[in-house]
Amino acid sequence: MRRLVRNWNCRLLFNAKSGQEIVRHAGIHQEAKINAVPKEKKVVETDKNGYGAKHCMSLVEKYDYENYLCTLLLPRELRRAAFALRAFNVEVSRSVSGHQIEPQIAKMRLKFWHDSIDKCFEPDTQRSYVEDQPVLRELKHTVGSRKLNKVYLRRLVTARERPPTHAFESIRELEEYTEQTFSSLLLLLLEVGGVRDLNADHAASHLGKAQGIATLLRSIPLAGRQQAPCIPLEVLVLHGVSQERIIRSKSDDKGVEDCIFDVASAANTHLKLARQLHDKVPPQVRKIFLSAVATDAYLERLRRANFLLTHKSCVGRDTLLPARLFWKSLFNRF
After folding, report:
1. Measured distance CA(4)–CA(239) in Å, rounded
2. What CATH number belongs to 164-334?
3. DSSP helix/strand/coil, 22
4. Which parts of the chain are beta strand (E)?
5. Region 240-254: what's the mean pLDDT?
6. Which keywords, in A-to-Z order, does the entry hold (predicted)?
């Protein structure tokens, strides 16, 4: 996997500060010829040499490491488009996440990404700010080369309009949110693979819910009081637990353990339903579902830690995940 990253752009380097391209082993005449390219063509030429793709890879590696590993194991013809979609999802998520972000600023950021989707579907003859943003350039390239459903892209943005301090009422509402944010991305990856299959769509829907719930559980110790815990209110009322107790997550709090167990069980149920459809999913797109390996590993660590979110095994990276993913990819299983 490291070799894939090193060799991704082995022929050309891009200096973002100077805006000049430097070709390895190039002669004087070659370098002068490159620098003579008009400014309006340099952005397009840069993308042809992989700068936009490399930027998307770096973005996903930094903010979505587990899915970065999964995407590296996809077939070569799907990898660039998959990184573009995941980088777009990272940018949208970052627009509303973080400490001390004003709600009005978050809305403006989401409005920008929502309008950018329409710009990416415009003909190439219409110039726009898309060419100045590497993630949008890659997304426009993906839209131009693949048949993608604009509805799924819009769901990634509109689902984030939910205020982070607004708690989920029920597990069903939690599942609906994760389906819009996580399942939509998996459905887009299936479209990148050129597969339109009902069983694959059902597997993507279930896996997206499982991955989304697990991700929201992992975010509770990190977010603290900046956002409401993902534990639905109906679960809190059932066990008589407050949101403050969920945030503190003391090891001797039996009520908190029961709440985390109920939500993690919902994620595990969807994960099992997705894997039951394994043999019905077309073989050429099964690697798209490799994120099931990371989700299953986290839920297992959480179970062994007695559903304590702040346990050291649940807050750090899984060092064995690369080996697990590679092993599963060898047999084309998830």
Report:
1. 48
2. 1.10.600.10
3. strand
4. 12-15, 20-23
5. 91
6. Membrane, Mitochondrion, Mitochondrion inner membrane, Transit peptide
Number of Cβ within a 10 Å radius of residue 189:
24
pLDDT in tens, 47-56: 555 788 999 9
Which pTM value belongs to this model? 0.83
Q: Tell me the two tokens of residue 281.
A: 């999913």
Q: Average pLDDT, stretch 28-42?
A: 39
Q: Are 195 and 148 in contact (CB under 8 A)?
A: no
The rounded distance, in Å, linking the Cα atoms of 188 and 185 is 5
- Rounded Cα distance between 32 and 26, Å, is 10
Residue ranges per structural domain of the chain: 45-161, 164-334
Contacts of 71 (CB under 8 A, 6+ apart): 60, 79, 82, 83, 86
Phi, psi of 115 (to 5 degrees): -70, -30
Q: What is the phi/psi pair of residue 276, to 5°?
A: -65, -25
Distances in Å between the Cα of 194 and the Cα atoms of 148, 280, 282, 322 are 9, 16, 11, 27
Instruction: Kindly state the percentage of the chain with pLDDT values over 90.
Output: 66
Contact 114, 154 (CB under 8 A): yes
Do 287 and 73 form a contact (C-beta atoms < 8 A)?
Answer: yes
